[in-house]
Structures are given as structure tokens and as C-alpha cells.
Amino acid sequence: MGENSVIIQLENIVFSYAGGKPVLDGLCFTLEEGTKLGLIGHNGSGKTTMLHIIMGLLKPSSGTIRAFGKPIETKKDFLDVRRKIGFLFQDADDQLFCPTVLEDIAFGPLNLGKSPTEARKMAMEILERLNLKGFEERVTHKLSGGEKKLVALATVLVMEPKALILDEPTTGLDEDTNIRIITLLNQLDISYVIVSHEYDFLAQTTREIYGIHDGRISYRGDSNTLHSHYHKHLMGKFRHHHATLHSQA
Amino acid sequence: MLQEPFSIGNSQIHRLDPRFKVVFATVYAFVVALSNRFPALIAALIFSFALIGLCRLDFLEVAKRIALVNGFIIFLWLVVPLTFAGQPLFYLGPFEVSREGVLVSARITLKSNAILLAFIALIASNTVATLGSALSRLRIPEKIVYLLLLNYRYIFVMEEEYRRLLRSASIRGFRPASNLHTYKTYAYLIGMLFVMASDRAERVYKAMLCRGFAGRFYSLHEFSFSRLDLIWLVVVTIAVIGVEILEWVKIA
Fold this sequence. Notes:
Radius of gyration of chain A: 19 Å
Number of domains of chain B: 2
Largest sheet of chain B: 2 strands, antiparallel
Structural class of chain A: alpha/beta
Largest sheet of chain A: 6 strands, mixed
Distance between the termini of chain A: 24 Å
Number of helices of chain B: 9
Radius of gyration of chain B: 24 Å
Strand order of the largest sheet of chain B: 1-2
Number of domains of chain A: 1
Number of strands of chain B: 2
CATH superfamily of chain A: P-loop containing nucleotide triphosphate hydrolases
Oligomer: heterodimer
CATH class of chain A: Alpha Beta
Number of strands of chain A: 12
Helix content of chain B: over 70%
CATH topology of chain A: Rossmann fold
Shape of chain A: globular
Number of helices of chain A: 8
């Protein structure tokens, strides 16, 4: 694997919140081009912390970050990472802060130096691609939860990222929106990492699944072989449960 | 939930350049507020009503807004005529109603209604989003403009969070009364709301950083000053001069 094909590489990352014990303790993680992977872990296991470190929103106390073959150290390096990696936040209300959908989607392109006309055009194109035509003048806070999520995804995709990071994209969404997001992700030809609690969702959107436990990441297996629903058939006397968080693949 | 019912419409006033409407509404408010003679104030009120008429707004909705402000003005009428020093007009039992007090109250009533109606016609006929862009084009500092826009965006989220907290309190049997437990509970609720607001602000800021925010806001709106705006510029200039003439020239 050449250096160019590595999108993100974290090495020996240590991070702790003020006064606490380390959340991440010597964590290593690599995202290569063309991979779609899922990341699973307990509440408070450091998943979101790791994602925020990648985006430069948190600073690790030690360890190195490389992106697109270059070490990422300064603020300016992270500005470049943020242009190339799209980040979908857990709560769409955090992401959508402009009054109207069009303005919110155009926010990214305008920051990248596009003219208002160009930004508007890009926004309209992405809305069409996500089947959200007619949403441009809608007021963001009046959208439904599912609509907010899809618009939030549009605000990220409009920046034409080389990779995506999605932090629990399906929390609290209905079946229809879930399916729309699954379809959309499968159509994307860029790499992504999805943090989720739902094995079934990960099975439909990713190929490999990693787990985060005790501040480190380990490989869990092919997403098709891992699932977490209770089986209807009995094994012995009990309904059984596959792939709990601690099981090794 | 807060609505923007007056911003929907396609009247001449709706189509005017929002920058022009903001500037004129401000100038007009000062002119009316500083006028004192009744001919000028009555003329201004008529002009404001004309603006509302041209805006083709739902009169019932406008009346509701006006009623809200006039509710405060009623209190003014209850207090000022009785307490303002001046010539007695008539006596209400033991109270003396002064002529000057009545005149002051009447002026305030006319002024506030004229200004409010003009603001409904000129300012409320834009969405908050458009208003924000117009203000930023008028060189109002960006921080103030975004304070307005972000307030508008997140006030609903905060309201929802507050209702959720209140609901969870009442589900656990909380009934507000006049006792220490109630005050303490409300203090906790409000405190929690501040904590949630500050967390939210932090996350919103992070999300903005992730989309390339580097401290400067850009606007999508492009405004143009059209022929219609020019015609209206003449109309409102004449209106303002008219009010000023009535203020300064004694008519026999």
C-alpha cells in the first residue's frame, strides 16, 4: 500500500479530558482510499473524541496524525484536512445554523472561496442529487428530524470531500430516512468511517467493522458476519445474541 | 412556534429592496418619534395605515399585533393623565386629570401606533434571513447581524429543550407553587438550560469549523435597487417632508 492511498493515519494517540484518565490510550487507526468501515464502541469509549481529533477539534496529548500522506500539525494543516474530509455531526441541529436550507448548504462552498452564484449552483445540484428539490427556501428549524439529517448530509457533500466521517448518522431516524441514507452511502465512491451502535445499519453500508475498547481500536471482522439482533431460534434453552461488543472476531 | 406570516406576499412593498426598507423605516421612526404636533402625528398615522394597506396584509393579524402594544398604552392612559402636572381638565372623584397629561398620552399613542404599523409594513414584510443579509449589506457589524440570525435559529431549539426539561419535571410530579422547592427547581431548570446552550454553542462552532469557517461570514443574497425602489424613494421622501412641514409650519 503506497503512502498516497492512505487518507487518515493516527499513531499512538493519547487523549484525556481534564482531570480524567485517558479516553484514548495509544490508539492507532488507518483509513485507506476506497474503504468503507464501521466503528463500534460503548458510550464514552472515545469514538467521538477520536473523530474530533481527526478534524483538529481536539488536540491529543501525544501521538501523530497524518492525512493524505502529510503529517498534520499546525492549524493550517487542519484547515486543509477539513476541506477534504466531510464530517456529519450526531445532531443535525448543530450542523444547520443558517435560517434557510439554501444558505446552509452554500455556507461551505462560500468558505472555500466560491462566488455566491457558484455556491448557489452547487447547492441546487446537491439538493437535486439527494432528491431534496424544492427544499432550498425551507426554514431549517422547521424541517423534520429526517429532513434535517438529509440536509446536513447535503451541507457536507456539497464541499466535494475526499472522505466522510459520520457520527451516529441514524440515531433517532425513521425507517424511510434510514433507507434513503443507506442507498445514498452505497452510491458514494469515496471512503468513509461510520460510528454507529447499529450492526444492521453497518452491515448494509460498510465492509469492515472495528471496535474501540479501552482506548484502542481492534479489528472485529467482516460486516456481513457480524450482527446483533436476537435470533428467533433457540440455542439450547436460550435465545442467543451474536457479536457482543467484547467478542473477538 | 414563531411564524413569519407577514413576510409572505407579493405586493409592491414586499418587492422593494430590503436595504431601502430598513433605512426608510429607521428614518421614519425618528421623524415620527421626534414630532410633537398633532397634524404631523395624525398624518403619519394615516401614512402608516396606507403602507399596511399597500402591503395587503391580513388585517386581523395586524390588529392582533397592534392590540398587544396598545395593551401597554392603556396602562399609560391610566397613570399619566392623573400624575402629570398641568392645568386640570376635569376631576375624577378625588383625582385631578391634567390637560397636559391627556395630550402627552395621546401623542404617545399616535406615535407608537404610527411607528409600529410602519415597521410591520416595512420590516416584518421580510423574512429574518433577508433582513440579516440586508443589515450586513448596510455595513452593520457582522457580529450583530449573526447574533440576530443565530438567535432566530436557536431560540426554537432552546425552547424545545426547556419544554423537555419542564415536561420531565412535571412527569415526576412537579407542581409549581409559591415555595422554596419551586424556586429551586426553576433555578435548576434555568441553570441546566444555560449549560445546554453553552454546550450547543460549542458544537455548532465546531460544526462550522468543519465546513471551513475561518472567521468571516459570506452572504448569498444579492440585492438590486430597481425602478420600483426609485419610485418609492420619491413617495417616502415626500411623506417625510410632509410630516415635517406639518410639524414646523403653523396652519391657521
